[in-house]
Design a protein that fits this description.
Blueprint (H helix, E strand, L loop, with lengths): L1 E5 L3 H11 L1 H18 L4 H9 L2 H7 L1 H14 L3 H8 L1 H7 L8 E5 L10 E8 L5 E7 L5 E7 L3 E7 L6 E9 L12 H9 L4 H9 L5 E8 L4 E7 L2 E5 L5 E4 L20 H15 L6 H7 L24 E9 L4 E5 L9 E4 L2
Parallel strand pairs: 1-4
Antiparallel strand pairs: 2-3, 2-11, 3-12, 4-5, 5-6, 6-7, 7-8, 8-9, 9-10, 12-13, 13-14
GO molecular function, one term: acyltransferase activity
Protein name: Isopenicillin-N N-acyltransferase like protein
Organism: Desulfocicer vacuolatum DSM 3385
Length: about 350
């Protein structure tokens, strides 16, 4: 896995980032956009035109990250329009009704863990062959990040500001978007990046609370034993709280008022099984949870291949999916453990915030 150091202005960060992962960007753009286009009998350029209608909204929402994307285009030699379409991939996928199987996440803190340490992480499930890279980012606003990047599409960060409490952020997709519904939203990957650059967990949560979205479920956890979840649906939100110091998420809504809107779980009912399996495994070791124990739990193959550790389903109707990486963060220690592949066969390596 490539480790990429990013610093400077927003444009400079984007330029270095784009230059470092230009092959990943080109592969993601071609594979993902061509795959969707083929599915709906369109051309890739049609999807680029569709997504680029969101550019004015995104510029108004987060001009700093748009500078990053412009720098990324310069550094990679790939057009800004294509890169923005890639950052709008989730919206395009759900708008076009092309649904991949996706992640399982967790957090534990306080009495639930062996030494009271906060632990947050997830298995990242996506299309086989998508490359992961680890970003060490010094943002102009002061945030230091270790951020696991999925093919240039979006990131999974641990963030620390000077004199502030570090926090980690994970995401699992849920969706209330009806196929064919108007696609006029700031891309979720941009919303998530803005949340991750905030100074504190409370401000990161505020980004999600104040954004109108039809998709997404997030878990945030800080070094102060704070765990909070949020679900986005139908231009609304619901905040979730841990039970006995633990939280689990998969790809279905937990909020009762959002359940009738769920457009994801009916295609991937294994989400319920992964969620419950992780809940059972974590409850079994309540009070004894450590990063090493969670590394083992994330290798679980109950209901394989659509298990916590997901492998390609040979009978899959939609695009194949598998666990591309597993990440476990310990905010107090500025520590991130990463298995760059299925955790059942790939060792976890430790990385620390500088």
């Amino acid at each position: 896995m490539d480790i990429i150091r990013l610093k400077g202005t927003y444009t400079q960060i984007g330029h270095t980032w784009g230059k470092a992962i230009k092959n990943d960007l080109r592969s993601s753009i071609d594979n993902e956009l061509n795959g969707i286009a083929k599915y709906i009998s369109k051309e890739k350029r049609d999807l680029i035109v569709m997504s680029n209608k969101l550019i004015p909204m995104a510029r108004a929402y987060d001009p700093q990250f748009m500078e990053v994307l412009e720098g990324m285009a310069e550094g990679s030699g790939i057009s800004f329009e294509e890169i923005f379409a890639l950052r709008s991939l989730l919206e395009l996928m759900f708008y076009c009704h092309k649904l991949p199987n996706m992640c399982t996440a967790f957090a534990a803190a306080g009495d639930a863990t062996k030494d009271g340490t906060t632990i947050i992480g997830q298995n990242i499930d996506w299309h086989p062959g998508t490359n992961m890279s680890l970003l060490r980012i010094s943002w102009p606003g002061g945030a230091e990040q270790l951020s696991l990047c999925l093919g240039g599409i979006w990131e999974y960060p641990l963030t620390r500001h000077p004199d502030e409490v570090p926090f980690g952020l994970t995401s699992t997709l849920t969706v209330s978007l009806t196929p064919g519904q108007d696609l006029k939203k700031v891309p979720l990957s941009i919303v998530m990046n803005r949340a991750a650059r905030q100074k504190r967990l409370e401000r990161a949560l505020s980004v999600f609370v104040n954004g109108e979205q039809n998709m997404g479920g997030f878990v945030l956890a800080s070094a102060e034993d704070e765990i909070i979840g949020i679900e986005l649906a139908n231009n609304n939100y619901e905040v979730l709280f841990p039970e006995r110091g633990m939280m689990m998420r998969a790809n279905h809504y937990l909020t009762d008022r959002f359940k009738p809107l769920d457009s994801f779980a009916k295609y991937w009912p294994d989400s319920y099984l992964r969620y419950n399996r992780l809940k059972v495994l974590m409850q079994k070791d309540w009070g004894r949870i450590t990063p090493e124990l969670m590394m083992k739990k994330l290798t679980d193959h109950n209901n394989s291949p659509k298990s916590l550790c997901t492998h390609v389903d040979p009978e899959a109707v939609f695009s194949p999916s598998q666990t591309l990486a597993s990440v476990i963060m310990v905010p107090e220690e500025g520590l991130v453990y990463i298995a760059n592949g299925n955790p059942c066969t790939t060792p976890f390596l430790a990385y620390r915030l500088e």
